[in-house]
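dumping this here so i dont lose it
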């Protein structure tokens, strides 16, 4: 199986999640349904601590935690709510890695252009802006550290904070999770030296109880990063 095929499993699972999320749904059930869907679509396992779907809702969306410590909470989704799903499918030791923050208003999943809650809408718009900035800023000479400083400066100037528990913005896609290198301070390796890498800024407005995450895998094409 190709990396694009495994990533497609994750993308299809997020689209499936949007059709089933509803008020009153328990996060444990949502995680279970997402993991079952990935297996049904061809995943044979989950690469990140054997957890296929990290699911957060409401004020949990600001939580940044290692898979080692993650526990899905026994809470239900509200009529107006914010839900982040982060997926880690694997097939034949090939990874997918994909996350989205989904908004419910009046009991219905809404497209980001139609979100009436201004804070939620601006959070998702900022995520889109950061991913666009990645594709504009990075070239074959850019290091992980340079990207780290550049994006974190934009996050702060726009009035947001980076919530990641390690302060980083993504990692390389490898065969063993312990071999990952990160978009972090001190990593002077060129990004183009890895075949695939994630970009997954986890951001919030200072003092807010809501966080936003958007994660894609990228690779280089004609000297610039493009989404897998």
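and the seq i came up w/
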């Amino acid at each position: 199986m190709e990396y694009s095929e495994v990533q497609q499993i994750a993308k299809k699972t997020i689209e499936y999640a949007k059709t089933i999320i509803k008020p009153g749904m328990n996060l444990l059930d949502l995680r279970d349904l997402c993991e079952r869907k990935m297996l049904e679509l061809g995943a044979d396992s989950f690469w990140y601590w054997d957890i296929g779907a990290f699911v957060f809702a409401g004020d949990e969306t600001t939580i940044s935690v290692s898979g080692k410590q993650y526990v899905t909470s026994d809470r239900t989704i509200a009529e107006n709510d914010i839900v982040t799903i982060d997926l880690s499918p694997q097939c034949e030791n090939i990874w997918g890695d994909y996350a989205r923050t989904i908004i419910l208003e009046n009991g219905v999943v809404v497209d980001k252009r139609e979100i009436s809650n201004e804070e939620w809408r601006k959070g998702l718009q900022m995520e889109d802006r950061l991913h666009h900035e990645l594709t504009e800023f990075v070239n074959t000479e850019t290091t992980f550290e340079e990207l780290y400083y550049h994006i974190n400066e934009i996050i702060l100037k726009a009035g947001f904070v980076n919530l990641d528990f390690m302060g980083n913005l993504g990692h390389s896609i490898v065969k063993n999770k312990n071999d990952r290198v990160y978009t972090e301070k001190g990593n002077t390796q060129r990004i183009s030296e890895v075949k695939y890498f994630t970009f997954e800024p986890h951001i919030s407005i200072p003092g807010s109880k809501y966080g936003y995450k958007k994660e894609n895998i990228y690779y280089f094409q004609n000297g610039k990063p493009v989404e897998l």
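Residues 59 and 102 are 14 Å apart (CA to CA).
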